[in-house]
């Protein structure tokens, strides 16, 4: 089968890219290893995604935002301000929304709602434009590209050809690897436990990042539970991986007591309100994001540590940059997979992502190092950052994102 664009991976990035390309006379194939049911009705996965204002705009343009709101009017929660705390120190660096141009820094929404809305938007494009083929339950077995095109063999035996191959198959992208592209990977040796909890005290829509000694805690403020009125947050606990398993297995009451203690009662008593999920923390940055007739998007292009909440936000930036270039080339009758186009995409996406990727690595190393000099240094860093208006403006802009 022949296509213009072949995307491997129908996660949020692959689906959003297919949607962005639809309706312009290009034929796209999406290849996904999971069964159709898993992407049609994605299960709750514990992730609350902090969306920058820029991502919110693109989600509206792609029709995702409206779909989520129509189904769950309470789904988007405003992220008004952010507080960063270090150990037992009462000092907090506050990043207020007033530093940006909006009444909130960004928005929070559950990852499975993004995935379901992206799938539905693709379905609508398929029905309207008849230009997307979705192949589910299919794995990529082999890949090669040449001057004529990109050629992909499927584990089921089929063969697909396209002008441009795009990997959107996660940070551990098998497609990127099959293209022979190396990646720098950093395994933090830690995992993140995420779940929803209700609590007695109000959060006032302020997010917390609390670099405690031996653990990192984050609190992402969600809207109050509509039925009970209880205050609700997504809670994120980062610990050495071996310490996460017992917390996943403990009974709900014991877990709630443990979390209440870890949060030092700052939110009063806490109650578990969802399933618990764990993610090992591995950051990935590939040496190249493009090759002959090939590009990476989403986590396949930049696999961020979630602490700075930019994985999906960077995915959105990359999708926009690649889709705009491809559509402009197509409209002008130029090749959609030229080396020039792909290299420009890579340059712009590296410029947009590399500094924060490196800064996130640095922050994470400093704030998970519990030796006395590191503790002192992080305290000083937070104080200096807290007193530097330009620094705080930069952080606010990266969240409020005025690209
Ligand atoms: C705990 C946590 C919190 C996060 N919080 C935030 C946040 O606040 N803000 C933010 O912007 N980002 C956040 N992120 C990051 C965000 O979730 C990811 O960036 C985003 O989900 C990546 O989407 P993706 O489509 O690139 O990859 P994925 O979601 O990994 O999807 C990849 C898809 O490819 C498929 N696939 C894989 N291999 C193959 C193959 N060989 N053949 C075919 N299909 C394949 C998979 O089945 C999957 O459907 C968070 C991540 C975590 C873990």
Which value, in Å, is the CA radius of gyration? 21 Å
Q: Helical percent range?
A: 25-40%
| Domain module tally | 1
Number of discrete helical segments: 12
| Straight-line distance between termini | 38 Å
| CATH fold-type name | FAD/NAD(P)-binding domain
Q: Largest sheet, described in full?
A: 8 strands, mixed
Uncertain residue segments:
none
Please identify which CATH superfamily we are dealing with. Answer: FAD/NAD(P)-binding domain
How much strand content do the residues show?
Answer: 25-35%
Q: Residue-averaged pLDDT, rounded?
A: 90
Which cofactors or ions or other ligands sit in this model? flavin-adenine dinucleotide
Backbone shape: globular
Question: Class in CATH?
Answer: Alpha Beta
| Topology, number of strands | 19
Helix-and-strand structural type:
alpha+beta
Please name the CATH architecture: 3-Layer(bba) Sandwich
Topology:
Elements: E1 2-8, H1 12-21, E2 28-31, H2 36-40, E3 48-51, H3 53-61, H4 64-71, E4 77-79, E5 81-86, E6 92-95, E7 106-110, H5 111-129, E8 132-135, E9 140-145, E10 150-154, E11 159-167, H6 174-178, E12 183-199, E13 206-211, E14 216-222, E15 231-240, H7 244-249, H8 252-262, E16 270-272, E17 277-286, E18 290-291, E19 294-296, H9 311-331, H10 339-367, H11 372-387, H12 389-400
Parallel strand pairs: 1-2, 1-11, 2-8, 5-13, 11-19
Antiparallel strand pairs: 3-7, 4-7, 5-6, 9-10, 10-11, 12-15, 12-16, 12-17, 13-14, 14-15, 18-19
Helix pairs in contact: 1-5, 1-9, 4-5, 9-10
Flavin-adenine dinucleotide binds next to helix 1, strand 3, strand 12 and helix 9.
